[in-house]
Amino acid sequence: MELRPLDLAGILSRAATIYAGNAWRFIAMVFTAIVPLTIMQYFIARGEQPQIDATIAWLQLPQNVQATHIPPGLASPNVLLFASASFAVTYLLLGFAMAAAGAGVAANNRNEKISYGACMLTAVRRWQSITGAVLLVLALGVAATAAVVVGILIPLAAVAALAPAAIPLMSAFGMLALLVVLCFAVTMLLVVGAATIYAATLEDCSPSDALRRTLRRTCNRGELWRALVCASIVSAIVIAATAGVDILGFALLQHRAGLYLALDAAVRAVVVAFADIVFAVYYFDLRVRQEGYDLAMRVDYPGTCAVEGIDYAPTRYLSGEERALVVAFIERRASLSPLYRRNLAARIVAPARTRVPDELAAMDDEALLERL
Q1: CA-to-CA distance for 169 and 187, rounded, in angstroms?
Q2: Which of 24, 63, 236, 370 has the fewest CB atoms within 10 Å of its CB?
Q3: Residue 263's pLDDT is what?
């Protein structure tokens, strides 16, 4: 499969192609992470079933329930504690599944067969970096949410103090602004979190370095809206699929927790596996566009990423494949980050330096590539 810069439609198309050929492997990666949580949810649901039944009865026929308020089931300390704990555990487990999916897409980029065992082993070997990345992203999410709330509520409070008559209008405006900004923050956090986990898994760097690299790649003027749209599309797909299961479960399986949780786990595994692949393809596309990842792959794995439709004859100092690589670098070097541009030029020209005369070998990397 040729590595090249993709638009959003191309990212979704490539993700669908990878998924179609390896669906059961990616689903198994996600299912491995979901099963422990599903089992825990089952036993919790059995213990909370009477309170859940009472809440459902109140919602359906409140006049027949002898209570002046909603039953305390969903406000139970146990339920709230479980909800908080399960959120953190879910994100951590799904982080490992996401890391494994990233390893699978990386193998596909190298034209290697995707192996469930090898991908999961990659995630397990990097467990410290993945855990650190998950915790960092969660901390970033909490900090961003707090900043958004404070940044909107303090000005509104000041306006309300100066003009009490405007409180109803400002309250409505504040809630709308808070909702919009939070949706933006959560959506961006989704793509930033995924890319950070992939970086921590595949780039052999620390969690903090992975987060810094991800923020540099995504939070810039040229990429911010593209990242937001990509995350919004993936979110819409996941929410639509899981909401359908939740509605079905509430309507038909409200007294059969085991069946509902099994159906929920199966659907989430299918949908989340596709979402993981989309984010992985997007992550590699970021590196292709900004760092020349595809060109580096052609240096590391000759013959795996040849340019379609273009054949170059060999010269005295370069093979045809090397000439194609040099041309691709020169055409795209202006779009690459300076550090990656310098490093990539040095790697591309290194084999040719041993073949050229001394007067050419004395030239700097890019000048020699231009001459060749």
Answers
A1: 27
A2: 63
A3: 79
Give residue 141's pLDDT: 85
Question: Within a 10 A sphere around the Cβ of 255, how many other Cβ atoms?
Answer: 11
* Per-position DSSP letters for 100-111, written without gaps between them: HHHHHHHHHHTT
How many whole angstroms separate alpha carbon 224 and alpha carbon 207? 21
Tell which residue, 284, 313, 150, has the closest CA to residue 217: 284
- Give the per-residue pLDDT at 13: 94
CA distance 372 to 369: 5
Phi, psi of 311 (to 5 degrees): -120, 130
The structure tokens listed for 200 are: 């921590």
For 66, which DSSP code? -
pLDDT on residue 359: 86
The answer for residues whose C-beta is within 8 angstroms of residue 27's C-beta and 6 or more apart is 269, 270, 273
Using CA atoms, how far apart are residues 368 and 322, in angstroms rounded to an integer?
13
Tell me which residue has tokens 């409505």. Answer: 172
CA distances from 141 to 103, 163, 181, 186, 243 (A): 25, 33, 13, 7, 23
Distance CA 316, CA 26 (A): 46
Report the pLDDT value the prediction gives residue 126, as an integer from 0 to 100: 92
Tell me the three state secondary structure of residue 4: coil
> What is the pLDDT at residue 243?
79
The predicted structure's pLDDT at residue 362: 85
Tokens for 49? 């079933």
The Cα–Cα gap between 295 and 328 comes to: 8
Amino acid in position 148 = V
Helical (H) or strand (E) element with 239: helix 224-252
The Cα 335–Cα 4 span in angstroms is 13
User: How much is the pLDDT for 166?
Assistant: 64
CB-based contacts of 205, cutoff 8 Å, min separation 6: 129, 199, 213
Between the CA of residue 101 and those of 75, 111, 164, what are the distances in Å? 36, 15, 54
